[in-house]
């Protein structure tokens, strides 16, 4: 490495790694507010502003109830699906909801087990190097609108609920075929099982909706930071070309800016790596289950011969799964393009030896 890079790293580079959860109690949720509001009401995300006390203990009990209901329903559905392997229609109907419930269980575990690490991801973007400092940088920021998608998903969930109620209650059958160690012949037992399934599907649906846009929004935040870094490089190039300061002042200014660029760049790679470790396994389960559910939905659509609430709800659910996968692919593509644009920016037609130092440093950090 050249003189400028060595001095920049030695004098100025210090990556944040000592955040504590207590310091994160007021992190801004911005575009993720909808997601964490839904998760809060479902018992999966205890509000950070709540101090330790009776509220948090009560919320922990609420969380335990939700987890038990969702996981027990998933287990009962899995047993019943395995017992129906001889009937393709019953197996397809069982797999239709089983994979969704399994994916939801993976998402619940991710949010509960990695809660502290998720909070620290938010805190990463509170570093001074990730904040805007002038109107040009502020113009790079964008707000990801997810409320419309959440409304569509909630509408789909409501139609699915109406479908199950309309086809189950008049005939006194439970909405989902699950394995039970007892009969549901009596009225009290039927309604107990019915509401148990209803609440498990309700919580699973809300959690799935909240999680569906969580990861793409995280990825959009990284794209925004790459755009911010690109903007800073452009402004830096303009400033050194038009600078009238002394040689000593220019060198000090350039050393500091190089250090900021390197810190910001490495911080983004740390953030991306941490987010991949946290959300990667759940995303793999979600992708596999979504592809399989789409196949099951298409099979079910082929069995319907008339337009009814079952056709509409199944069609909307299929479109929702398609769009959920599309959001992940779109966010991944935007992130790849943002990284490429930032790297291309460091190779502008500028042969200044100091910019060459920065290029070498960027390449070294990427490798």
Automatic annotation (TrEMBL):
Keywords: Cell membrane, Membrane, Olfaction, Receptor, Sensory transduction, Transducer, Transmembrane, Transmembrane helix. It is a multi-pass membrane protein. GO terms for molecular function: odorant binding; olfactory receptor activity. The keyword Transmembrane applies. Its main location: membrane. GO terms for biological process: signal transduction. It is found in: Cell membrane. The keyword Membrane applies. GO terms for cellular component: plasma membrane. The chain crosses the membrane at residues 58-76, 96-114, 149-169, 189-211, 278-302, 314-333. Belongs to the insect chemoreceptor superfamily. Heteromeric odorant receptor channel (TC 1.A.69) family. PANTHER family: ODORANT RECEPTOR, ODORANT RECEPTOR 19A-RELATED. This is Odorant receptor. It comes from Microctonus aethiopoides. The lineage of its organism: Eukaryota, Metazoa, Ecdysozoa, Arthropoda, Hexapoda.
